[in-house]
Design brief:
2 copies of one chain form a homodimer.
Chain A: H1 19-24, E1 29-33, E2 36-41, H2 45-54, E3 56-60, E4 66-70, H3 74-80, E5 94-96, E6 99-100, E7 106-108, E8 111-116, E9 119-123, H4 129-137, E10 145-147, E11 152-157, H5 161-169, E12 181-186, E13 189-194, E14 203-208, H6 214-225, E15 230-233, H7 237-242, H8 278-287
Chain lengths: 294, 294
């Protein structure tokens, strides 16, 4: 991998609310994801891996932009966007889903949060699902509003992350089950926390809901976390490959279908509800796939 | 502008067909645009500016991804996507257009090429209009196919660019008018050239249609161009700001409408045809805008 001397920060690419904090805490290399900078190196990726698997790391993943679907037809609209059966999804739950187009091609693999009866967030990989969702809404006849909310997640991941969460939010947070979320407060900051992440380790995501408070939130977490061994870090490519987790664009794109990815479990062709790509995926399943990732 | 030591190239971000050539010719800094790397510095941005305004530069702008709309309803569909009146657009013509959503927000400001009676390319700024277009097609009832073709543009810009084009393609290319395009051949490479660019100088874009030929095309152009003073370069932020040209995300986004940008000339509310955002832009025009870029 060739390394280049300089990486200039332009005005066309957004900075995360945690950008200044990550620079202060040693971020040395950035990439771009969803039109935003993401720190990719705090000096030593291998050390970052060990920090993650032995202790805990705090990662700026504000690049996981949220798309909010809200309105009386939100549930119907969200089901239309994914082959995963959402019939039994409760308020407070998260689900890992695929978003497919009419050809069954994968457009994104977000975590979906159901925040209220008629309110959802897609926590996105690197593609403009805001445009896709607004596009399919145009002639859908469904009553929904689709927007990008002010929401920026951090990932707190690693075996010690539970202890850090306990120290930050109190004992009650230990009840939070895998792939559930809830609203919490931290010294006046209104947050949403979920037990999700991209590490295959115990982990949490903490969604800031006011971008002016990025510095404050980062420092509060690091201050409490340091005694548990918490380090600033970045989502680990080593761990995610080990964990068999998908990286959109690297492992999948619009020309890849769920079966080629071995993600059959995220597709339900038997459910009554229709979704975009259902007919195409039926056809693909019947004919068998030509290639498969292992 | 803080500079960082390293910029790592990850697998999640695509490389241009001209990537290796630009590195060989001195590219030192990259940014990311439409999920691809774009060279942003060949050692001295001010020298690059003078190369552009005095002679000519060759820029890798393969990041300007194309979206192709093809099929019997292509013209109707494309008109639905933009507030600019396309009634009189000829095959062979290019038009600078805006793409708006239902709220009149700007999603992109591409150059549109009409390649055939029923075939168009959107040459895009930095957002996934492929997803937007496929999204609005879902319930449109129109017969179109929407894809990303194998097409990667270079920009040849500057006062000497005409002479270079003449030497490359022969005298006949000098007939090509501003904002028109045509198919040409260069030693067996099938290309589309347009008299467009992002420099306010005389300039051309050269669209490669087979991504395996990037190196070959780059070297052929540089070989012929050197005697005219052609240098490798990058689209100049200095020149584009001087020229008052829009940089999507830096100057406009989904929450900006065309009137706020002073781009009223790209909106035709009087035309018979409907387009997405027409009702909202009517409303905005009637009520007057609250802010305006100057």
């Amino acid at each position: 991998m060739k390394q280049f001397k300089n990486f200039g920060f332009g005005t066309q690419i957004r900075k995360s609310p945690f950008f200044e904090a990550t620079v202060r805490w040693g971020a040395q290399e950035f990439s771009v994801y969803n039109h935003m900078y993401i720190p990719r190196d705090f000096g030593d990726p291998v050390q970052n891996f060990w920090n993650l698997v032995n202790d805990a790391i705090l990662c700026d993943v504000a690049v996981e932009r949220q798309v909010e679907i809200i309105g009386p037809d939100a549930s119907k609209f969200v089901q239309m966007m994914t082959p995963r059966d959402l019939t039994n999804m409760s308020v407070g739950q998260c689900k890992y889903i695929l978003v497919t187009n009419s050809d069954g091609g994968v457009l994104n693999d977000p975590v979906l949060l159901r925040l209220g009866e008629n309110r959802y967030w897609f926590s996105l990989a690197d593609s403009d699902i805001l445009l896709w969702a607004q596009g399919i809404a145009v002639n859908s006849g469904l009553n929904v509003t689709i927007l990008e909310p002010d929401a920026s997640p951090l990932q707190l991941q690693g075996p010690k992350s539970g202890e850090v969460m306990n120290a930050l939010f109190g004992e009650s947070i230990m009840d939070l089950k895998y792939y559930w979320h809830r609203e919490v407060e931290l010294d006046g900051l209104n947050l949403i926390v979920s037990r999700t992440g991209w590490s295959s380790e115990l982990g949490y995501e903490i969604f800031l809901q006011d971008e002016s408070q990025g510095d404050e939130l980062w420092e509060k977490i690091m201050e409490v976390g340091t005694s548990f061994g918490l380090k600033p870090g970045h989502t680990s490519s080593i761990r995610r490959i080990e964990g068999g987790m998908l990286s959109y664009h690297a492992d999948a794109d619009i020309n890849t279908n769920p079966y080629e990815l071995g993600l059959d479990r995220l597709v339900n062709l038997e459910m009554k509800e229709d979704f975009i790509g259902k007919a195409a995926l039926h056809r693909i399943q019947k004919n068998g796939v030509r290639r498969k990732q292992v």
